[in-house]
Structures are given as structure tokens and as C-alpha cells.
Amino acid sequence: MTAPKTILLVEDDEISCVITSRLLSREYQVLIAHNGHDGLYTYQHCAPDLVLMDINLGDPNMDGVRTMQEIRTGNPNALIFALTALDSNREKEALDVAGFDGVLTKPYEVSELRDTLRSHLSKKGR
Fold first, then answer.
1. DSSP result, 7-59
2. What angle do CA 43, 80, 21 make, to 5 degrees?
3. Which pLDDT score is estimated for 88?
4. What's the N-to-C CA distance of the chain in angstroms?
5. For 32-42, what is each residue's pLDDT tens digit?
6. 51 Rama class: left (phi>0) / alpha (psi -120 to 50) / beta
7. H or E element: which one contains 81?
């Protein structure tokens, strides 16, 4: 039996962390970081297969975009998806340009989250 894939959830909202980790824990190992600094540290030391990154992490010096950029400095091929509550095409385009592999808008459908993870993890041979 192969080990489950590891998902790093970087999210400062405790309720979102609990809900998302419960949704994913049957299929994946879920690591949680509550801010950008912890997210970067966890990524560097645990090498997860995919990162779900909240954009607004409550720290103007280390928001989700900055954390993603720091992770990409060490691993340009990391799979990193933005999580955002804003649902504008302009913001989604900006996040794509910033370097995210995709954007999930909160609240997202459980099926959308699972399909996104399965699709991208299988495409990258992870």
C-alpha cells in the first residue's frame, strides 16, 4: 500500500482549517500552517505534494502570494493553489500571473476541491 499524498494547507482561519482538513483527511495526509512563515518552514521540511495557500494570511509582510514566491524560490515546480474569498476575474488573473497553479474561490464545493487535487496530483505524476 502506498503512502497517502501530503497536502499543506496554509490558512489563518481556524474554522477553515478544521473543515478543510476533515474534508481531505480520508484521502490525504493534511499538514496545517497558520501563517506564511510556518507555511514556508513546513514546506521546506516536509516536502508536501501540493499546497493550498490562503491569500490573506493576516501578515502584510508574508501573505499568500509572498509565501508562494518564497516556496518557488526553492522549488519552481511546486504545486500551489490559491484560496481566496474574492471572486473577481481580475483577481484570478492576477493570481495566475503571480504564479499559482490555480485558484479556488471560497466557499468552494467539496467536489471541486477533490477534483482539483486528484487531477493535478495525477497530472504531475505525484
1. EEEE-S-HHHHHHHHHHHTTTSEEEEESSHHHHHHHHHHH--SEEEEES--S-
2. 70
3. 73
4. 15
5. 999 999 999 99
6. beta
7. strand 80-84
Helix, strand, or coil here: 104? strand
Are 11 and 83 in contact, with CB atoms under 8 Å apart?
A: yes
What is the pLDDT, as a whole number, of residue 1?
58
- Distance, in Å, from the CA atom of 72 to the CA atom of 70, rounded to the nearest integer, reads 5
pLDDT of residue 125: 52
From the centroid of its chain, how far is CA 74? 16
Nearest in space to 48 (alpha carbons), one of 27, 29, 22: 29
Amino acid at 37: H
Indicate the pTM of the whole model. 0.91
Question: Per-block average pLDDT, block size 10, for the chain (126 residues)?
Answer: 87 93 94 96 97 90 94 95 83 84 88 91 67
Q: Which three cell numbers stand for residue 47?
A: 516536502
Per-residue model confidence (pLDDT) at position 18: 94
Q: How many CA atoms lie within 13 A of 36 on its CB side?
A: 19
